[in-house]
Amino acid sequence: MPAPIDDDTRSAIVARAALGYSQRDIAEELGLSRTTVRKYLHLTREVVEGADDPRAALADVVTGRYDWERPRPAALRGFGDLPM
Q1: Maximum CA extent, the chain
Q2: Domain assignment of residue 26, given as a range
Q3: Is residue 82 in some structural domain?
Q4: 11 found inside a domain
Q5: Which of 12, 41, 44, 79 is the most buried (most CB within 10 A)?
Q6: Residue 84 has pLDDT above 90, yes or no
Q7: pLDDT tens digit string along 3-36?
Q8: Which of these, 26, 2, 16, lies nearest to 61 by C-alpha position?
Q9: 74 belongs to a structural domain
């Protein structure tokens, strides 16, 4: 399972991805596994694509203002988040 990370690291992942860094380069530069980078980019994509204002949501993620503790709507949860 990917390691939990702080907001600054999450922002660094997203900012580097926006600049065109590969997941491998981001992982190596930040000292993370590629699985962790992939997980947080996937979560960011879900948030941005599901937002009423995608640009504002992405800006909040990059600047560390997005509240990752708030529950995501059911439409944004992945298949693995569903109860069995």
Answers
A1: 39
A2: 7-64
A3: no
A4: yes
A5: 44
A6: no
A7: 678 889 999 999 999 999 999 999 999 999 999 9
A8: 16
A9: no
